[in-house]
Amino acid sequence: VPELPRVDLFVTTADPVLEPPTITVNTVLSLLALDYPVNKLACYVSDDGCSVFTFYGLLEASKFAKFWVPFCKKYNIQVRAPFRYFSEVTKSEDSQQFKQEWILMKDMYDNLCQKIEDVTRNPSSFQFEGEFAVFLNTEKRNHPSIIKVILDGLSDGLPHLIYVSREKRPKYEHNYKGGAMNVLTRVSGLMTNAPFMLNVDCDMFVNNPKIIQHAICILVDSKNGKDVAFVQCFQQFYDGIKDDPFGNQWVAAFEYIIRGMAGLQGPHYCGTNTIHRRYAIYGKISGDPEFNREMGWVYGSITEDVPTGLNIHRKGWRSEPITPDPTAFMGCAPGGLLTTMVQQKRWGSGLTVVFFSKHSPVMGILFVSYAALVAYCIITNTNIFPKGLGLWIPLTLFGIYTIHTLQEYLSKGLSIRCWWNNQRMITMRSTSVWFIGFLSAMVKLLGISDTVFEVTQKENPTSGAAAGDDANAGRFTFDESPNFVIGTTILLVQLTALVVKILGVQLEAHSGNGCGIGCSKPTRSEPEPTSGPRRSEPKLAASEAQTF
């Protein structure tokens, strides 16, 4: 179709252990099977871990794609990530031919997964020959650039598929995901140079095969689309645990906050599930500026999406949210408490750096200070809130906030338990990993140490039972991780304050007027002496009293 523009597809992965190759393979297969002309698509996979197993998985997946993509388009399959599609059995009303092909496809997919699993379980037996020889003696943070064209987009009837692992050296800053995205932008600009670019994380597979058409309709709109830099699809997750015990599914947040930002310049860039206008990423360049300062993904923070989105909006571009039915992309939310905390700490550190840059979860230090202040006031027998009618001000604000947030959850069909779990997790992450992230950012800004990028662990996809069937799903597991130190310390301080209050061994309060935060409780005034003559007060004349 000559009228449709070309689109480059970017997939990023960073660690073959925390992000197993099977996850990346499923995302790539869903992209190759998009309902879009194959000669208009090119898929680039950035492997920041320089893993031969990721490349091996993509190479084997390209062979499977020659059968999988035609099967999806022949039967108009909606979910085109194999692990999700094969999690459901065929229906009785399906034709016999379809059932036979379904069984054949599933056997081929199971064989693909088995091959990938075999090489990852026995890395010592892998033969670094032929296409794999370039990976010999490479290290994750010390290797040359590796670019491999797996599918050329001509002879196979499939989109281009290109593997990219950028050069890394120990003494040079690689700028995390922002650096990887800039490399993909440059490489694709030289090879296919599509006017639009889709970027997804390795675990965000395509759930709506027509999502590119939906986004392009907005970007090429002659009336309102010229100033749209990117179209943002919300992050939604499959097999979410009931009532969201870890508070990481973000249903209400995306519905009310991100969608609500459409009235401004549009939603902020979320780092994934985004269709960009290449020209907006490049920007208007005058002179000879550095690529990452005037164009491309902005460096300086491990949450590269926030400063990049702010920089795009600062130049006057708009963004648009898009919520097609069915959902555009689906991913896996962190499946445990520690994984959730690691993710939140990374976000907290990155956002704090953004807050103190020229372009935040400073709430982390505020929550910790508030939690410590309550215990301090109990132990020292002082007040944190104003007395009298003034006390109704914070109580009223708290009540309004509680009712409003609860109404948001209920209006989306979520349970009260889900609302409670999310409020609980807000407190937990604010008083623990956000504060740790804040300290980490301060250490970086002071030049003492650099920030460590921690990849969020993804669960290896299976076509078996859902996560909700796990008896341990949603349980909080605590270990020796430093992510729990701050929260545990605050809990012990609060318990100590309660014991002090119950035993009545609080410190003696000093005089004060009880005006509010940190003010002591007023002491009872001393009685006047009963002995001795009392000095009589002078009486006012009637005229003076009236004047007064």
UniProtKB/TrEMBL annotation:
One Pfam family from the record: Cellulose_synt
Keyword annotations: Cell wall biogenesis/degradation, Glycosyltransferase, Membrane, Transferase, Transmembrane, Transmembrane helix
InterPro entries cross-referenced by the UniProt entry: Cellulose_synth, Nucleotide-diphossugar_trans
Residue positions binding UDP-alpha-D-glucose: 19, 48
MF terms (GO), sorted A to Z: cellulose synthase (UDP-forming) activity
Gene Ontology CC: endomembrane system; membrane
Highest taxon, organism lineage: Eukaryota
Record: residues binding Mn(2+): 177, 201
Transmembrane segments: 365-385, 391-410, 431-449
Listed GO biological process terms: cell wall organization; cellulose biosynthetic process
Topological type in the membrane: Multi-pass membrane protein
Matches recorded under SUPFAM superfamilies: Nucleotide-diphospho-sugar transferases
Gene3D superfamilies on file: Spore Coat Polysaccharide Biosynthesis Protein SpsA, Chain A
Name of the featured protein: Cellulose synthase-like protein h1-like
